[in-house]
Specification:
Blueprint lengths: L1 H24 L3 H8 L1 H12 L15 H8 L1 H13 L38 H10 L3 E6 L13 H16 L3 E2 L22 H17 L4 E6 L5 H9 L9 E4 L6 H10 L5 E3 L2 H10 L30 H5 L5 E2 L6 H24 L2 H15 L1
Parallel strand pairs: 1-2, 1-3, 3-4
Antiparallel strand pairs: 5-6
Length: 379
């Protein structure tokens, strides 16, 4: 009889405690309402009189074994009974919160521009998409050729220079720089050892395919940075042919303007008045970009004077360069001063930084290009 009285006192308390604990863990209104409904409470009383256990409705919370075991322990049940007799609430054991998931050890913070390489070939595949976003869809192709530069400069001079300018500018105004690109127009140097001269059809197709691949990888604005004078007409023609067929990207040719202040300073440092190829200025630039590849002791091994062998004023012919500079050397690099190179590079880099920022913000080119393609279809 005593046990029945104790059970009748504790059972409602136990039921309320269980419902409170479940509300703290994961509330299940449907199961709780079923438990506290009048029919269920009457069924519990009848089962208690008959000495039979009454099944509790199954809730679906996150199980908390430690809190549940503590609640149903003999000491806790006795303490609840004493508190109940005294009219004092008995504190429920605190359910342990679900442990927060720890980040995967391989998960890293998203890289910022300062954390990403600007050179395409140095980026990881995982960082590439972030790089395209930070570059705002802008990619640079620094271009040159492999050709003789007198006896004292490396044959890759044009590519080294264009790439140096592009990488330096991109480091400040973030963009991605395409790998070493040396396919350009250099037919006039085919008579010199080491020259790499591709066919005109291949030159065009390779650059066109390269631009399409760059665009396929997420860049819709491509800047050509030219380091070779013989490429100028070819690249202007290439840009014009972008209107031949529809495309979802735009090609820009970097055309730096003359900087009067820089030109004045360079003129004050120069020791010669002629030039154009492997000369005093280009040699000074390479003494900054790759001084380890400059051989100043070989400067005087060949002449860079204009031979003037084709006096045809007012007429242009492809053999003009060979007629004037058969040694593929134009000027005199004897007195080359590295300060000239620094001034020249700083001016080019500053201008390219401005152009990158301008092209990032440019929406007009693509809008006009798309309008042009639409009108061309409808014509």
């Amino acid at each position: 009889m005593k046990n029945q009285i104790l059970t009748s006192l504790l059972l409602p308390l136990l039921l309320i405690s269980l419902s409170n604990m479940q509300a703290q863990v994961h509330p299940k209104p449907q199961a709780l309402n079923q438990l506290l409904s009048a029919p269920n409470m009457q069924a519990q009383a009848q089962d208690l009189k008959a000495g039979q256990p009454h099944p509790l409705p199954q809730a679906q919370p996150h199980p908390k074994p430690q809190a549940l075991n503590q609640l149903l322990s003999a000491p806790n049940m006795q303490a609840q009974a004493q508190d109940f007799k005294a009219g004092q609430p008995h504190p429920l054991p605190q359910a342990q919160p679900h442990p927060q998931a720890q980040p995967h050890p391989q998960a890293q913070a998203q890289p910022q521009a300062r954390d990403l390489a600007v050179a395409w070939e140095e980026l990881t595949s995982a960082d590439f998409k972030k790089a395209t976003e930070l570059a705002k869809g802008v990619c640079i192709i620094p271009m040159g050729v492999i050709e003789k530069h007198a006896q004292h400069l490396p044959m890759g001079t044009d590519v080294y220079t264009a790439r140096h300018i592009a990488l330096t500018a991109a480091s400040s105004e973030y963009t991605v720089v395409f790998p070493f690109y040396f396919a350009g127009q250099i037919f006039e140097a085919r008579h010199q050892p080491g020259t790499i001269s591709y066919s005109s059809r291949m030159l065009y197709d390779l650059l066109d395919e390269t631009c399409r691949e760059i665009a396929r990888n997420g860049f819709d604005k491509i800047i050509l940075v030219n380091g070779h004078g013989g490429n100028t007409s070819f690249l202007e023609y290439f840009c014009q042919t972008q209107l031949e067929g529809e495309r979802d990207y735009a090609v820009y040719l970097f055309t730096p303007a003359g900087d009067r202040e820089t030109e004045r300073k360079i003129a004050g440092l120069r020791k010669s008045t002629t030039g154009g190829h492997a000369d005093e200025v280009e040699t000074a630039v390479m003494r900054i970009v790759r001084p380890d590849l400059v051989h100043m002791d070989r400067v005087a091994l060949e002449s860079g004077r204009d031979q003037a062998r084709l006096p045809l004023p007012g007429a242009y012919t492809g053999i003009w360069w060979y007629a004037r500079y058969p040694n593929h050397y134009a000027g005199d690099a004897t007195g080359s001063d590295p300060e000239i190179g620094r001034l020249s590079l700083d001016s080019s880099v500053a201008q390219l930084q401005q152009v990158i920022a301008m092209i990032k913000a440019d929406t007009t080119t693509r809008e006009l290009q798309n309008r042009f393609f639409q009108e061309a279809r409808e014509h």
